[in-house]
Structure formats: C-alpha cells, structure tokens
Amino acid sequence: MSADDRDEMTLKELNYRARDGFEVSLLWSPESGQLAVVVVDEAGGEEFAMEVEPGEAMEVFRHPFAYANSRRLEFRRPLVSVAA
Structure pTM? Predict the structure, then answer.
C-alpha cells in the first residue's frame, strides 16, 4: 500500500493497543479490502505500516516487530495515521 493510496482510503480501526510509548493499530479499508498493521513510536515521532493478509492479521497485530524484518515497510514522518 503506497502512501498516496493510504491517504485516499477510508480506514476503519479494527483493533488498537498502546504500551511503552508504542501504539499498534489494525486498520481495514472497506473500499479495497486491504488490511494493515500500523505501529507508531510516540517518542521518536515515526511510524511504519505493513500490509497483512486476513488469516495473519491478528498474529501480526500482536507481534508486529517479529514480522517487520520480513516485510516491505512504509515509514512515515511526521505522524499522520488517522482512522475513521
């Protein structure tokens, strides 16, 4: 999912958690059906997002850093993730 695609989509937050300065969201686009896990580092002022498949969405949501090394990540700065 490119930055332009994500900015133009309506994103629904399916799940959210925060701990130790990190926020993790599971987002879904009703238009495209795409799912993404977004991780926000509040202290560093950065975030990354990765697309996920429906069958793995909750596993990646629970352990995003374990999956981050093997995924194409999109990094953004400043923080812009806003879920509808």
Answer: 0.75
pLDDT digits (tens, 9 = 90+) for 17-70: 999 999 999 999 999 999 999 999 888 888 899 999 999 999 999 999 999 888
Q: How far apart are CA 27 and CA 81, in angstroms?
A: 10
83 near 13, Cβ under 8 Å?
A: yes
Rg (CA), the chain: 12
Domain assignments of the chain as residue spans, ordered by start? 3-76
Structural tokens at position 75: 């990094």
How are strands ordered across the β-sheet holding 12-19? 12-19, 22-28, 35-41, 46-52, 74-76
